[in-house]
Design brief:
This protein is 37% helix and 17% strand. It is built from 2 helices and 7 strands. Strand 5 and strand 6 form a beta hairpin. The protein starts with a helix and ends in a 17-residue tail after the last strand. The mean pLDDT is 79. Keywords: Membrane, Methylation, Transmembrane, Transmembrane helix.
């Protein structure tokens, strides 16, 4: 037993202990390279999730507007602007609240904006309908649903809503 202890002590005195500076620097460089790869990938995933949330808000808006239309005697709600993360409250023309439901609103995810524009049928020349425009503040894509066509169109990657007629801000 004492021979074994002597052997370990002798080995300890002559052996290398710890890491060299070069080995530590190599490890730090490897960790830095991994971080440099991971951060842009994370940011891309984050933007993709924000775009998906905006697209989902537009789809949920379609359901809410159609429910409003059915509950209010085939009348679409008035046009309304969304604010970041706050729900859109749907009202009849002139700002009259719906008498059919207290839950007539479109949920908007945090960081997203929606605009609802309804077409005017008073002149009899336009087909009744609506368009919902939604985008994320950082996702850089704009999603527009048109009830006349029944399709959602993706515009991007730059969020230039003034160039999309359905996304022009509605005057209150």
């Amino acid at each position: 037993m004492t021979a074994l202890l002597r052997w370990h002590r002798a080995r300890r005195r002559t052996g290398d202990e710890g890491f060299t500076l070069i080995e530590l620097l190599v490890v730090v460089v490897i960790i830095g390279v991994l971080i440099a790869i991971a951060v842009p990938l994370y940011n891309n995933y984050k933007k993709g999730a924000q775009n998906t949330a905006a697209q989902s808000d537009v789809r949920n808006g379609v359901t809410a507007v159609e429910a409003f239309y059915t509950a209010n005697g085939n009348q679409y709600p008035q046009s309304v602007n969304g604010t970041l993360g706050n729900p859109l409250k749907l009202t009849l023309a002139g700002g009259t609240p719906s008498t059919k439901s207290d839950a007539d609103q479109i949920a908007v995810s945090a960081g997203n904006q929606l605009i609802l524009k309804t077409t005017n049928t008073a002149s009899g020349t336009t087909q009744p309908g609506y368009a919902i425009c939604g985008w994320s503040s950082t996702g850089k894509n704009v999603y527009v649903y048109k009830s006349v066509t029944g399709k959602t169109i993706k515009y991007g990657p730059d969020k230039t809503t003034p160039n999309i007629p359905e996304c022009k801000i509605v005057d209150p």
